[in-house]
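Protein Record: Sequence and Backbone Structure Tokens
======================================================
Tokens: labelled as protein backbone structure tokens, with as many entries as the chain has residues.
Task: work out the structure tokens from the sequence, keeping to the layout shown below.
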Amino acid sequence: MKLSVVVCTRNRQETVGQAVESIAQCEYPDFDIHIMDQSTNDLTREIVQELSKRFEAKCRIHYHHLDKAGLSRAYNAGMRVSDGEVIACTDDDVIVPTNWLTSIARAMESDPEVGLLYGQVLVPKGLMEGSPSGTEVPALTFTRRERLAKGKGFKVFGMGANMAIRRTLLERVGGFDEALGGGGPLRSSQDFDFAFRTYRFGMAILLAPEVTVDHYGTRTREQWPETLKNYGIGDGAFYSKHIRCGDPLALWMFVRLLLVWRAKQIRSLLKERRWPDDPYSAHLLTGVRDASKFAIDRKFRLYRETASAKMTVTEANAVTAAKRKAM
């Protein structure tokens, strides 16, 4: 099975080199790498070209520059220019182990009905002490392998920093929704939306704990409110799209989410005698409102532009990347 790796990046020259180098060092016989660059300078291009020459005997590293930003847009472009049977995706602030691609291939080969795979996103040891000082590293940890398939339950889960997609799935779901995700007008939740459409369109999702990466992307205390705001807008837009398509599961999930967040707010009010400042839940309905201006392609459940809603570029979620210390 040939694998293609897609890495989307924007002005992250400090860490994109270490990410690509770790992928190129994977012990897998047949893969290539596609760097989808939306940077406003040439630094990433220079780094990738140097790595391409260095690893040309082992794997091909392709550089692509996109003039218009947007994470979902970059994912879709990466799917189009690659030709692997499975597309493995990771971020420009991640380090993968040498068995990363082998673990993905084994998991996919073991179950042909799996269209989408999520692995663990771990916090490196060198960043574990970051939380007390106000720095957080988004992570996803789990120990139990799970298979989410139509009729057997769905849950919002997974991170695009460690994801693999079977190419045949793209024929069913039509790619990522370019209104969603970092840089898009609806800010985030492109991965949750992609997973939900995978589930609804009849292919299984595999949560594979043996597939791991280390995440070096950090968020400071000052960055979190804006990040949570973007998450709220994206989640509101994600749920409302599928509710507009008449999906009862999406309606139930959204109502349950609203009830849970309202209960948390009431508990906080009773305990602290003040209404909590919650950027996430405060912007869920903002996402619903903003998304209502878009039309929907009901075949693939993708947002489409209208006269009042365009696929304009917004700022991506604020993330600060950290370098891996030399061993």
In short: The chain has ten helices and 13 strands. Residues 273 and 295 are 42 Å apart (CA to CA). The radius of gyration is 19 Å.
